[in-house]
Amino acid sequence: MSIPTTWTIDYSCGHTGDIDLSKKRVDQRAGYAKWLEQRDCFECYKQKNGKKESAERAKERAVELEKVGTWEERSGLEDLDGSDKQQAWARVIRGDILAGLYDLYVESGEHDEEWFESKILTPARMIATCRWWIDNRDFELPAFPELLIAGADSEDGNENVA
Ligand SMILES: [Zn+2]
Questions:
Q1: How far is the CA of 15 from the centre of ligand 1 (A)?
Q2: CB 27 within 8 A of CB 51
Q3: In the beta sheet, which residues pair with residue 7?
Q4: Separation of CA 4 and ligand 1 centre (Å)
Q5: Which of 4, 60, 92, 95 is deepest in the core (most CB within 10 A)?
Q6: Statement to judge: residues 82 and 105 lie in one domain
Q7: What one-character DSSP code corresponds to residue 18?
Q8: Domain region containing 83
């Protein structure tokens, strides 16, 4: 009697599938087939892992947004104009940029809190769109004092957004 090359596996997820074991040594096929039967089929494995990953990522994003939210409240920063997805992204960008600017100019002793309030936070509060933060995210931090003033005065400023 010859050892089959195609084995039918009853996966633990309940699916059944034929698998080609011709590349396995004849005396290893039964053991390998048994091992496969303790596992989910490939489709179920992929789906479960994909779900876990996106659930974890969503949780991380929620934690990040909550942190940003607390800080926004303290800094008097309003919600931005844009879709939910854009909001999530743009608010984190805004938080990163403003925190970076605080480190760069205030923590370093170059400027005081009052300077930060009038030159950074005041124009930042006036920028009302997600789009502005997303479009400008790649500029270096020292460009922002000027960018913020320009942004507050542009069509993305809250006086000009409908
Ligand atoms: Zn399955």
A1: 4
A2: no
A3: 19
A4: 23
A5: 95
A6: yes
A7: E
A8: 54-152
Distance 19 CA to ligand 1 centre (A): 14
Residue with tokens 């005081």: 112
CB burial of residue 152 (10 Å; 0-12, 13-18, 19+): buried
Virtual torsion, Cα 153, 155, 158, 160, nearest 10 deg:
110
Which residue type, as a one-letter code, is found at position 20?
D
Q: Is residue 124 part of a domain?
A: yes
Residue 113 sits in the same domain as residue 143: yes
99-135 pLDDT tens trace: 999 999 999 999 999 999 999 999 999 999 999 999 9
CA of 5 to the centre of ligand 1 (A): 22
| pTM for the model | 0.65
pLDDT tens digits along 52-103: 778 888 888 888 888 888 889 989 999 899 998 899 899 999 999 999 999 9
Q: What is the Å distance from ligand 1's center to 23 Cα?
A: 23
Q: How many angstroms is it from 46 CA to the middle of ligand 1?
A: 9
